[in-house]
DNA sequence: GACGAGATCCCCT
DNA sequence: GGGGATCTCGTCT
């Protein structure tokens, strides 16, 4: 797909007034684009996780934890929260009202715009390009938290409502790397079933014909 | 492939 | 100093 100039950013209402788990599922198939210095890059969201704020033992804001690092989570819906994790960076969309620190982690991206730039940014073969939260940030060439607090309406990174794909089937699982006392209740990871850019996908589970999208 | 160890680096309501 | 919402590589099937 050629770089896009005309599109509509997802409205604030998309990111509030309903459960963050629903928002995480609805983000699957949406196009994320980034106007990077090297040109526009982007792809379809294929994997997300919902983090449910102060009551969620897996969340950064569990029990009201609030510091400089996770303060963006407390800002308005549709804002950007980037954080460092073991030498990598990961990307959240903030959901819900101010001071309600919930968000959705973007964990997998199927490249659609500027793939050659992305493969220059991260020289790993095949689906290893962007099948994980730290990997996709490398592919986008984002290596800092400077875009924290920015809102999609006026950021160089955004999620748009145009050109979205529809998953044939949304699967869910426990969140990755999250250890809580209630793992059996954790089903807040969502992904496009059969898509190869979903993290930890086994080759035999890939749907090579459709990548898990509805085709009609 | 599956698994596990080690790297790495920012943050510390 | 210790701990992550991770990734890579070596080792073993």
TrEMBL record:
GO terms for molecular function: alkylbase DNA N-glycosylase activity; DNA binding. InterPro entries: Formyl_transferase-like_C_sf, MPG, MPG_sf. It is an enzyme of class 3 (hydrolase). Its EC number is 3.2.2.-. The keyword DNA repair applies. Keywords: DNA damage, DNA repair, Hydrolase. The keyword tRNA processing does not apply. It comes from the Bacteria. GO terms for biological process: base-excision repair. NCBIfam families: 3mg. Belongs to the DNA glycosylase MPG family. This is Putative 3-methyladenine DNA glycosylase. It comes from Lapidilactobacillus dextrinicus DSM 20335.
């Amino acid at each position: 797909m050629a770089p896009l100039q005309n599109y509509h950013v997802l409205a604030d209402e998309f990111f509030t007034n309903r459960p963050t788990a629903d928002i995480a599922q609805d983000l699957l198939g949406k196009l994320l684009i980034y106007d990077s210095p090297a040109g526009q890059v982007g792809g379809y969201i294929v994997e997300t996780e919902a983090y449910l704020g102060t009551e969620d033992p897996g969340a950064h804001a569990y029990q009201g934890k609030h510091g400089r690092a996770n303060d963006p989570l407390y800002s308005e819906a549709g804002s950007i929260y980037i954080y460092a994790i073991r030498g990598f960076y990961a990307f959240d969309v903030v959901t819900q009202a101010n001071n309600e620190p919930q968000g959705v982690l973007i964990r997998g991206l199927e490249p659609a715009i500027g793939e050659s730039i992305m493969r220059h940014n991260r020289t790993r073969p095949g689906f290893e390009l962007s099948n994980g939260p730290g990997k996709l940030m490398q592919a986008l060439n984002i290596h800092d938290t400077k875009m924290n607090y920015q809102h999609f309406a006026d950021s160089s990174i955004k999620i748009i409502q145009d050109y979205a794909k529809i998953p044939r089937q949304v699967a869910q699982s426990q969140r990755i790397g999250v250890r809580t006392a209630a793992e059996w209740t954790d089903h807040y990871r969502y992904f496009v079933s059969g898509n190869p850019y979903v993290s930890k996908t086994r080759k035999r589970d890939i749907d090579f014909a459709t990548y898990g999208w509805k085709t009609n």
